[in-house]
């Protein structure tokens, strides 16, 4: 039993592909018609519902490692004019000794070998990245980069910062993620659809300024919603537990929410939440939340806000697995600091004082039902529930019955019609 996962734009061909696969292999094929989260991720949950023993993933992919099922990626072969791409590369890098790393979208990976044959004789310092599905075996050697399913070895003495990046593909989330992660490297790109090349300014500085502003918003937040944006990427349960512990130690309350693909309408239902953190793959975690009622940050940005031991070094992390124990970028939580010894901090947004130290808050519990004294159940619930605490602070809490307080009167006929024009209202000409 094999699950075939197609993106929306390829679903029209799914039935024919499944029929041919069944005829050729004899295995039972199931088409995953839609995905709960981003189509670039493997939907292991839907595959397990049909008892699939393997998944064939068609179309663009983020190449995030999966937890359980074996996965085979079929990227497709989008056309690439290698000659035109070579000419654009020569125009962007006229110096033949330029140190450049060539990256590509997965749909153009089939043509990278031909492009390498064209460029390497002229550019001895050009490095072509290789696609790696899942975690590569063995530890990384010095100078080796393993990110976003790409693997390449940097030979320059100064490291990766001495290299420029050349991306083959259209503008999108993959390029944005690359540029934020390797923000010290100058980027240029070639769009195979338009046949044009350009130097990418991405407004990296503006994008980083926006993300650092969200870090400041996260420091001010009292209630954080943890959005589950994947159920298939390896390590997502570990990072959920890590974020919950981090928020508890930082004195913030948290919800864990599974709402599928986030949109403004869904998240606007949680008014008590001050900020959301999205646990998703490296491409989908950079959500543009400008249209949302509350901002959405990445796990790395939440760590910058709540973990005093993590400092901004200029290296941006979009893969949440880099934050887990054993990863190169993991930072242990520092010990708790008594409130009397904590150094106060001032918010750059509100100008108010706030606490930035980690503590060990006691776990609040509801009073037992056998308590002799009658207690305010709403207030007791508010001590542990962010929703109840938010509702308690509002001046209007809904309709109240007020039994015995409303005078008795006969029922009268009300207005008829629609709100824009009741029947007893005159029509203006």
Automatic annotation (TrEMBL):
It comes from the Eukaryota. Pathway: Protein modification; peptidyl-diphthamide biosynthesis. GO terms for biological process: protein histidyl modification to diphthamide. Its cofactor is [4Fe-4S] cluster. GO terms for molecular function: 2-(3-amino-3-carboxypropyl)histidine synthase activity; iron-sulfur cluster binding; metal ion binding. The keyword Transmembrane applies. Keywords: Iron, Iron-sulfur, Membrane, Metal-binding, Transmembrane, Transmembrane helix. The keyword Nucleotidyltransferase does not apply. Pfam families: Diphthamide_syn. The chain crosses the membrane at residues 221-243. Required for the first step of diphthamide biosynthesis, a post-translational modification of histidine which occurs in elongation factor 2. DPH1 and DPH2 transfer a 3-amino-3-carboxypropyl (ACP) group from S-adenosyl-L-methionine (SAM) to a histidine residue, the reaction is assisted by a reduction system comprising DPH3 and a NADH-dependent reductase. Facilitates the reduction of the catalytic iron-sulfur cluster found in the DPH1 subunit. Belongs to the DPH1/DPH2 family. DPH2 subfamily. This is 2-(3-amino-3-carboxypropyl)histidine synthase subunit 2.
């Amino acid at each position: 039993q094999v699950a075939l996962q197609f993106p929306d734009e390829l679903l029209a061909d799914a039935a024919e592909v499944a029929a041919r696969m069944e005829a050729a292999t004899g295995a039972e094929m199931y088409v995953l018609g839609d995905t709960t989260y981003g189509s670039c991720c493997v939907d292991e949950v839907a595959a397990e519902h049909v008892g699939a023993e393997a998944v064939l993933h068609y179309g663009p992919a983020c190449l995030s490692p999966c937890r359980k099922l074996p996965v085979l990626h079929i990227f497709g072969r989008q056309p690439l004019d290698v000659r035109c791409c070579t000419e654009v590369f020569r125009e962007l890098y006229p110096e033949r000794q330029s140190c450049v790393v060539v990256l590509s979208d997965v749909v153009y990976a089939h043509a990278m070998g031909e492009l390498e044959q064209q460029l390497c004789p002229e550019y001895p310092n050009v490095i072509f990245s290789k696609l790696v599905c899942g975690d590569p075996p063995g530890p990384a050697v010095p100078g080796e980069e393993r990110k976003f399913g790409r693997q390449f070895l940097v030979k320059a003495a100064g490291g990766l910062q001495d290299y420029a990046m050349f991306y083959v593909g259209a503008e999108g989330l993959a390029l944005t993620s690359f540029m934020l992660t390797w923000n010290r490297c100058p980027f240029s790109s070639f769009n195979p659809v338009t046949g044009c090349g350009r130097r990418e300014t991405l407004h990296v500085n503006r994008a980083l300024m926006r993300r650092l502003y969200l870090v400041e918003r996260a420091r001010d937040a009292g209630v954080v919603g943890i959005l589950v944006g994947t159920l298939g990427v390896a390590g997502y349960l570990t990072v959920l537990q890590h974020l919950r512990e981090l928020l508890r130690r930082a004195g913030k309350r948290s919800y864990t929410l599974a709402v599928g693909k986030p949109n403004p309408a869904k998240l606007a239902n949680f008014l008590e939440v001050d900020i959301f953190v999205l646990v998703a793959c490296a491409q989908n975690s950079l959500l543009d939340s400008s249209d949302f009622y509350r901002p959405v940050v990445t796990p790395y940005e939440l760590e910058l806000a709540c973990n005093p031991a993590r400092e901004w070094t200029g290296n941006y992390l979009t893969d949440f697995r880099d934050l887990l124990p054993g990863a190169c970028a993991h930072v242990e939580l520092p010990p708790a600091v008594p409130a009397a010894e904590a150094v106060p901090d001032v918010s750059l947004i509100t100008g108010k004082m706030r606490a930035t130290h980690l503590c060990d808050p006691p776990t609040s519990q509801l009073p037992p039902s056998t308590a002799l004294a009658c207690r305010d159940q709403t207030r007791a619930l508010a001590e542990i529930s962010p929703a109840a605490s938010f509702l308690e602070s509002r001046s209007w809490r809904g309709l109240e019955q007020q039994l015995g307080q409303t005078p008795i009167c006969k029922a009268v006929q009300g207005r008829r019609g629609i709100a824009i024009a009741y029947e007893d209202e005159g029509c203006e000409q």
